[in-house]
C-alpha cells in the first residue's frame, strides 16, 4: 500500500482558514496527553501556557518583545522561501548585525554634543552587515553552484565565534572587572521605550512596520510578483525574463537585512551592550514562524505571537509546574508539523492505493 496525493479540483476557503486552527487544537490535545503522562493536570498546564501570559501587563510586553524579532526575521525569510531559496543562516546574520551595529555603539560611547545620529547609524550598519553576510551564500550559489543550505548554516557558527571573540577581546569593557561584555551603551545608542518605566521599546514598531511593508511589496509590486513566479515555476519565470541570479541576490539581501536589523534592535533594545551571546535562537525559531505563517507577512505576525506566547508560557510552566522547557520546543515542532500536514489535506485528496512506491517515469 502507498499514499497517493491528488490535487483537489477546488480548494475550500473555509477549510484553508480552519486548517491552522484545527492544527493548533490538535497540538494542544497531544500536548495535554504528554503533560498528563508527566503527572501534571492538562487544565493547569493550559492555563499556565496560554492564559496566564495574557493576564498581566509585564507578560504581554514580554510576548511582544519576543515576537518582534521573530516576526522581523521570518518576514525576511519569507522572500527567500517563496522564491524557492533556502536561507538557513538567519541566526548568523542576526548575530553579525548585532555585532556590527553594537560596535558603533561602543565606538561612540561617551560622545557629547549632537548625538541623535548614533542610533540611526547603528541600525543602518547592523542592517547592511546582515545583507553583506547573506551575500556570501548567495554568491557561492550563483557563481559556484554551492548549496545555500550548507553555506548559510555553517556561517552561523562563524558569526557566533566572532561575536564571542569580540566580546571577550577587542570590545570588552576595560573597566568591567574582566566580565566578557562591552561597555553599556549610552542613551543615544538605545532604542527608546514606548512608555516610561516599561520594557517595551521601539523595536516592536520596527517589526510591525516591516510586516506591513513586506505585505505591500509581495502583493502590490512587480518584484513581489517575480518572487512568487520564480518560486512557483522557475522555467516560466525565465521565459518571463526574471533572472534567477538577480532574484537570489535580492531575496538573500532582504532576508539578511531583516535579520541584521533584528539583531541590532535586540542589542540596542533589551540588552544594551555586546555580550558573547545575544540570541536565544531567534534565527532558527523564525524558520518555524515563517512556515507557520504560510510565508505570508500577516500570518507570520500571528505565528510569531503564538510562538512567543508558548515560550513565555513554557518558562512559567517550568517554574510553576516543574515541566521541562524542552516540552515547549517539542510543542512548537509538533505545531509546525500539524500545520503543514493540515495544509496538505486542504490541498490534496489523500488515498491509500495498492502497490509499492510509484516508479519514476522516463
TrEMBL record:
<keyword id="KW-0472">Membrane</keyword>
<feature type="transmembrane region" description="Helical">
    <location>
        <begin position="88"/>
        <end position="108"/>
    </location>
</feature>
<feature type="transmembrane region" description="Helical">
    <location>
        <begin position="63"/>
        <end position="81"/>
    </location>
</feature>
<feature type="transmembrane region" description="Helical">
    <location>
        <begin position="114"/>
        <end position="136"/>
    </location>
</feature>
<dbReference type="GO" id="GO:0005886">
    <property type="term" value="C:plasma membrane"/>
</dbReference>
<feature type="transmembrane region" description="Helical">
    <location>
        <begin position="248"/>
        <end position="268"/>
    </location>
</feature>
<protein>
    <submittedName>
        <fullName>ABC transporter permease</fullName>
    </submittedName>
</protein>
<dbReference type="GO" id="GO:0022857">
    <property type="term" value="F:transmembrane transporter activity"/>
</dbReference>
<dbReference type="Pfam" id="PF02653">
    <property type="entry name" value="BPD_transp_2"/>
</dbReference>
<feature type="transmembrane region" description="Helical">
    <location>
        <begin position="21"/>
        <end position="51"/>
    </location>
</feature>
<dbReference type="InterPro" id="IPR001851">
    <property type="entry name" value="ABC_transp_permease"/>
</dbReference>
<feature type="transmembrane region" description="Helical">
    <location>
        <begin position="200"/>
        <end position="227"/>
    </location>
</feature>
<keyword id="KW-1133">Transmembrane helix</keyword>
<feature type="transmembrane region" description="Helical">
    <location>
        <begin position="148"/>
        <end position="167"/>
    </location>
</feature>
<keyword id="KW-1003">Cell membrane</keyword>
<keyword id="KW-0812">Transmembrane</keyword>
Amino acid at each position: 500500500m502507498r499514499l497517493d496525493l491528488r490535487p483537489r479540483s477546488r480548494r475550500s476557503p473555509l477549510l484553508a482558514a480552519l486548517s491552522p486552527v484545527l492544527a493548533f487544537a490538535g497540538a494542544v490535545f497531544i500536548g495535554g496527553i504528554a503533560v498528563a503522562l508527566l503527572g501534571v493536570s492538562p487544565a493547569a498546564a493550559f492555563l499556565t501556557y496560554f492564559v496566564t501570559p495574557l493576564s498581566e501587563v509585564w507578560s504581554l510586553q514580554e510576548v511582544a518583545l519576543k515576537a518582534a524579532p521573530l516576526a522581523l526575521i521570518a518576514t525576511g525569510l519569507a522572500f527567500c522561501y517563496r522564491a524557492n531559496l533556502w536561507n538557513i543562516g538567519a541566526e548568523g546574520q542576526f548575530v553579525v548585525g548585532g555585532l556590527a551595529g553594537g560596535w558603533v555603539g561602543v565606538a561612540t560611547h561617551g560622545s557629547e554634543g549632537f548625538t541623535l545620529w548614533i542610533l540611526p547609524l547603528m541600525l543602518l550598519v547592523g542592517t547592511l552587515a546582515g545583507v553583506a553576510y547573506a551575500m556570501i551564500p548567495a554568491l557561492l550559489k550563483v557563481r559556484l553552484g554551492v548549496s545555500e543550505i550548507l553555506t548559510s548554516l555553517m556561517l552561523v557558527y562563524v558569526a557566533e565565534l566572532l561575536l564571542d571573540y569580540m566580546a571577550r577581546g577587542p570590545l570588552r569593557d576595560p573597566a568591567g572587572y574582566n566580565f566578557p561584555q562591552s561597555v553599556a551603551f549610552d542613551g543615544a545608542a538605545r532604542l527608546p521605550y514606548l512608555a516610561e518605566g516599561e520594557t517595551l521599546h521601539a523595536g516592536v514598531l520596527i517589526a510591525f512596520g516591516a510586516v506591513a511593508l513586506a505585505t505591500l511589496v509581495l502583493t502590490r509590486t512587480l518584484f513581489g510578483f517575480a518572487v512568487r513566479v520564480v518560486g512557483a515555476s522557475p522555467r516560466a519565470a525565465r521565459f518571463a525574463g526574471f533572472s534567477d541570479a538577480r532574484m537570489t541576490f535580492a531575496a538573500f539581501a532582504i532576508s539578511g537585512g531583516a535579520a541584521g536589523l533584528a539583531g541590532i534592535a535586540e542589542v540596542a533594545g533589551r540588552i544594551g551592550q555586546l555580550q558573547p551571546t545575544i540570541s536565544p535562537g531567534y534565527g532558527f525559531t523564525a524558520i518555524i514562524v515563517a512556515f507557520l505563517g504560510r510565508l505570508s507577512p500577516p500570518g507570520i505576525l500571528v505565528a510569531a505571537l503564538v510562538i512567543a506566547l508558548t515560550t513565555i508560557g513554557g518558562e512559567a510552566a517550568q517554574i510553576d509546574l516543574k515541566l521541562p522547557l524542552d516540552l515547549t520546543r517539542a510543542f512548537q515542532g509538533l505545531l509546525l508539523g500539524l500545520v503543514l500536514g493540515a495544509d496538505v489535506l486542504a490541498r490534496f485528496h489523500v488515498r491509500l492505493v495498492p502497490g509499492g512506491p510509484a516508479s519514476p517515469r522516463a
